Amino acid sequence: MFTFSWFGYLGFVYAYLFFREKIPIKIKVFKRFDFLTLILFFPNMHFWTASLGKGSAIFLGLMMFMYAIVQPKSRVLLLIIGSAIIFYIRPHVFMFVAVGAILGFMSGKEKIALWQKIMIFAVMFGSLILLQDKILGVMNLQDSENLVEDFQAASEKNSKDLQTAGSGVNMSSYPLPLKLFTFWFRPLFLDAPNILGLITSVENLVYLLLFIKILKKDFVNFIRKSPALVKMSFVIFFSTSFAMTFVMSNLGIIMRQKTMVMYFIFYVIYYYLAEKKYVKLLWLKRRNERMKETVQSS
Fold first, then answer.
1. Position 288 confidence tier, pLDDT thresholds 50, 70, 90
2. Which of 67, 110, 160, 210 is the most exposed place for a label (fewest CB within 10 A)?
3. Bridge partners of residue 28, in order along the sequence
């Protein structure tokens, strides 16, 4: 238990280093709370990353990967270790991380040499090809002749099996927007199964309020022009969430599984708010300089 709690702690350390290294600007949310401090101390996140199980180890692998991908040349060992942890625990999550990395670095606003883009694409795509049997084996689809139909059948079976528990929900009949809402923000007070569910409901409400902050007209343009790491985080979050909605039908399991992906959207939200604050500060600085020049000239 101590060892796995230590894994979870290291995951939060790497998460902090990644956030702070790429976003040095401090942001206040809800008028008084520091954004980074708030998201680092969500109780549900620490509950599932402090116990004996896959949660703490996969969280460590993901945050280690994100910290290492910032400077892959100097942190290549961490990148390999993080990737290995993700793959051996959840091969399908490694697939989403690889796809996110490819799309992020191919479309990010940074000027990356063509040979580097080709190398990243070749390494990630080659890894997916070589490891496809392991990835498909998660759903027992490695010998499938029709992946789409077999995936739908396996998803429906898993969904029905998970509904038998007391906190089961019939997600298979939900439209996609409601599936995503359930995965990200439920339980939400009325459907909380127990005391843990009530505590999680408060946390989910905060998630919802943070998510609302990016429901702005300029967010689409922000994503389109955002750096590679923002795009990568955005792709990983949505692709993993999308896949999980087809196999999750139990609020208890949802509470545990979403700890893997929520920090990716937190990073996107944080970067979006920090960029808006930076632009505002820059505008104020320039305005003050113009006013100072006007006063001096008069």
1. confident
2. 110
3. 34
